[in-house]
Amino acid sequence: MRYYISDLHFFHEQLNVRMDCRGFESAEAMNEYMIRQWNQKVKPKDEVVILGDLSLGTPEQTNGILKRLNGRLYLIVGNHDRYLKSADFQKERFVWIKPYAEMHDNRRKVVLSHYPVFCYNGQYRKNHKGEPLTYMLYGHVHDTMDEQLVRRFVEITRQTFRQSKYDTEPVPIPCNMINCFCMYSDYMPLSLDEWIAYHTEKEKAVQER
User: Fold this and answer.
1) How confident is the model over 108-113, as a mean pLDDT?
2) Measured between alpha carbons, how far is 8 from 183 in angstroms, rounded to an integer?
């Protein structure tokens, strides 16, 4: 099984009282909860793609966290992953470390970036049933105003019609961008289908207000 998650921010004490307002009594309490949630879901042979901003700890502290997390790990580099610059950081814990990647997940392509990519590779691709063949997975914006702007962009794009040389009439422009922010999933990595279901329900709830 492959899972995805972003912006865990291990050791980031300020996120308990500012921006995310996570509410843990300390960074240590937050770290322990996130590790428990992770290992409750992820088995040793599962794959997990971390979409950036794993840790604000020292290289040694981050090494210690990674030793406790289950799974085969992949890292998309985020703006806070400064431990990567240190020779003391154990990079071999990751299968690979990249600033951007494209992978396949159950016959669908996933475009992976720490930052939202608004015009992503494969955006228009669908199968014979009209279902999306490409999803853009990102992090960075947490649950901030920036994320609200991303959702507005998605909505506007889906309401915009265009006609390509393959279409007999104008059709809505596909836009399948998924924020894998850790707080949305209570700090558990989720599969692509689980993330799709989460955002589908969230969009439905917004429309029903």
Assistant:
1) 98
2) 8
